[in-house]
Amino acid sequence: MSTASTAPTAVTYTIDPAHSGAGFKIRHFMIAYIRGGFGGVTGDVIFDPANPANTKITASINATTLHTQDEKRDAHVRGKDFLETDKYPTITFASKKVTSDGKNRWKVVGDLTLHGVTKEATLEVESAGVESKDPWGNLRTGAEATAVIKRSDYDLKFNAPLETGGVMLGEDVHIHLDIELIKKA
Question: How confident is the model at residue 50 (pLDDT cuts 50, 70, 90)?
Fold first, then answer.
């Protein structure tokens, strides 16, 4: 009698905060995009290539690291009109469903908590598809993820009307994550 191998196919990685970042862009004055980002992205990925439904992703972003290349704007966005980072210093994501969307591509549905509000969000993820050994012997891989969320879904409603019509800030926030992962032993 032979038995089939039941060895687990899942691989566990940790997000390398020194080599990962989260960025965003939002329409400003209805004519251009303002871009910003965050450092301090941390988390874990349990990736099961044989059964994507078993994949689990948790990530956390330190909202106080916000930067938009303008100190006054950064202070305003961290303040009471927007993120209120003194009250909500962390942005989190926890996957609920992962499905393959082609070679090295995934749709990841999960709970995004931002500004004290948790809503479902979908990340479009593209992985590097390979592992590479760093000079210290660690196996690494990477992924890029994008999503678009509505500001108002997260109670981020500050805006101002423009004299020429329209508003100062768009409703859509375009999110971009560049993640480097280290395989856990």
Answer: confident
